Amino acid sequence: MSCNTPAERISAYLDGELDGSGAAAFEAHLETCGECARRLANLRALRSGLSSPALRAEPAANQERALRATLRAASGSETGKSLASFRRQLLALAAALVLAAVSFGLGQWSTWRTTRSPIVEQVISSHVRSLLAEHLEDIATSDRHTVKPWFEGKLDYAPPVVDLAAAGFPLRGGRLDVIGEERVAALVYQADLHVINLFVWPEPGGASAGLVAQSERGYQLERWSAGGMRYWAVSDASAGRLRAFVLAVRRAVEEDGQASTKTTR
Amino acid sequence: MSSGGDLDSLHSLDPERRLRAFERVFLPHFAAALNLARWLTKSPATADDLVQTAYLKALRSCADFRGENPRDWLLAIVRNAFYSEWRLQRGRERELSLDDLDDSPGEIAASQARATEPDPERLLLLANASHLMRVGLDNLPAQLREVLVLREMEGLSYKSIAAVTEVPIGTVMSRLARARQRLQEFLVERGLQGGVP
């Protein structure tokens, strides 16, 4: 075969995902390359087949009705629960704010702005507390194989502990912390001169959710859910640095998960 | 895309108001969710269960919705519900082999050399034999099948596919190319075995 155009390029051209100059260059190449023209024609043939309505699962009218009924039922039964948990969170928020006010003095307190999510408050106060009290780690070690077993017996779940030294975020250790009423794992990482607290706790229901970044009072926060766990990262490092950290965590946890799924399941 | 009013209502503590906003924002994507679920579970019957599960999860966590593309947000939940529970419970979905996981861009170009390109007109006939296409899709590893379904049946951009499947755009690109190549090889191979045009 004379032409070694990567399949990705032809595929991306078909999808209109090459940038303007890339597309123009490929079109010029198509004029002279029968091989690529044929490969493109074959991708179009596949597209034609895949667009057949016979392959699509179309919802029946009763399916959508059933879904609406399910949602309505769930929404009703969750009312009491969500109000109760809202009250719990309010109490926890009040406790966290009292603690924060004592730590910082009332002068600074008055400049604080309240936010929508009580968890944000708790995560930040937990982070601040960990720095103020010089109680960053219950177990101080950069060895994740020491940190992970340390949580055994202290929590009823095993938080994923990953080694990110190669990515520039050495592990400092871990400690137990409390968010809401839950005992949670706090993993402590170093990012240059900054400390990152990574809180991990199980999420009942376990819907995964993508990254959400937030900035509050000079602290950067990122949260996401994956593999049945809820993660909150907080730091006074820059947003970009924290995002790099979070991406490294997610990648490492996913790789760990794949490795352990193979051995345990 | 949802309006700011819907977004506020989704975060409302009033269940009735929240439910109505939820339905306005997410029910229009029921067909897309169902189709993705059908191709993940490979079964129209269980797809319905998966979609219901996913919608319930979405309703529970709609306070986390921050005005992203609602279709992509919902599809990501469908997909995650499938991988986190469905597959573990039923336990039969084929895992990706190491070869499938190799997302390096050069890999396809190298392997491309062995296959000769079929005649496009013949491939068109094969591709339009829906029963054959269905088997071909079901035989792909889930990670390749899902990108093809999202792209070709739902018309998602690479950016949206990356958001739904939580991988970088480069990975979407190489998985799509690989999925197409595999499907094409499957059709040609089956076509040679006869029966189909």
Task: Please give a structural write-up.
The complex is a heterodimer of chains A (265) and B (197). Chain A has 265 residues and is of the alpha+beta class. Chain A has helices spanning 7-14, 20-32, 34-50, 61-104, 106-109, 118-132, 144-150, 239-264; strands spanning 139-140, 171-179, 182-191, 194-202, 209-216, 219-226, 229-235. Chain A has a 7-stranded antiparallel β-sheet, sandwiched between helices. The two termini of chain A are 43 Å apart. By secondary structure, chain B is an all-alpha fold. In chain B, α1 crosses α2 and α9 (130-139) packs across α12. The longest helix of chain B has 24 residues, at 169-192. Residues 90-101 and 109-114 of chain B have low confidence and may be disordered. Classes of the chains: A alpha+beta (265), B mainly alpha (197). The interface between A and B is large, with 60 and 77 residues.
Distance between the ends of chain B:
44 Å
**How many β-strand runs of chain A?**
7
| DSSP summary: helix tally of chain A | 8
* Structural shape of chain A: extended
Number of beta strands of chain B: 0
Q: What is the mean pLDDT of chain A?
A: 81
Helical content of chain A, roughly? 40-55%
Helix content of chain B: over 70%
Rounded Rg of chain A: 25 Å
Structural class of chain B: mainly alpha
The biggest beta sheet of chain B is recorded as:
none
Unreliable segments of 5+ consecutive residues of chain A: 106-116
Radius of gyration of chain B: 19 Å
Report the oligomer. heterodimer
List the helices and strands and how they pair.
The complex is a heterodimer of chains A (265) and B (197).
Chain A: H1 7-14, H2 20-32, H3 34-50, H4 61-104, H5 106-109, H6 118-132, E1 139-140, H7 144-150, E2 171-179, E3 182-191, E4 194-202, E5 209-216, E6 219-226, E7 229-235, H8 239-264
Antiparallel strand pairs in A: 1-2, 2-3, 3-4, 4-7, 5-6, 6-7
Chain B: H1 4-10, H2 15-26, H3 30-41, H4 44-60, H5 70-90, H6 98-101, H7 106-112, H8 120-127, H9 130-139, H10 142-153, H11 158-165, H12 169-192
Helix pairs in contact in B: 1-2, 3-4, 3-5, 3-10, 4-5, 5-11, 9-12, 10-12, 11-12
